[in-house]
Amino acid sequence: MLLEARLLDERREGRVDEKVSIAKLMLAKGCYSLQEIIELTGLSIDDIEKLKNDMHVEKQA
Fold first, then answer.
1. 31 φ, ψ to 5°?
2. How far apart are CA 6 and CA 54, in angstroms?
3. Domain residue ranges of the chain, discontinuous segments joined by +
4. What is the three-class DSSP state of 32?
5. How much helix, strand and coil, in percent to the nearest 5, is found in the chain?
6. What's the pLDDT score for residue 32?
7. What does the pLDDT read at residue 34?
8. Using an 8 Å Cβ cutoff, are 43 and 37 in contact?
């Protein structure tokens, strides 16, 4: 049972990582609204805003 729970967590984390990667690509393209990114990835507005800010900081460095 513990192994099943761990595998499920790993799958969920993988899905989140994939959604974050997709959101980053969409932000980088600059042709998607925040609402479109939220709808297509399922991430929250807070998550998207954080990614957007993090990407802005990376560009400045």
1. -110, 10
2. 29
3. 2-60
4. coil
5. 85, 0, 15
6. 96
7. 94
8. yes
Fold of 2-60: Arc Repressor Mutant, subunit A (1.10.10)
The pTM for the full model equals: 0.79
Distances from the Cα of 7 to the Cα of 18, 24, 50, 59, 61, angstroms: 16, 26, 27, 35, 37
Q: What is the DSSP string of 23-45?
A: HHHHHHH--S-HHHHHHHH---H
Output the pLDDT for position 44: 95
**Is pLDDT of 3 > 80?**
no
The structure tokens listed for 41 are: 């990835």
Give kind and range of the element (H or E) at residue 45: helix 45-60
User: What percent of the chain stands above pLDDT 70?
Assistant: 97
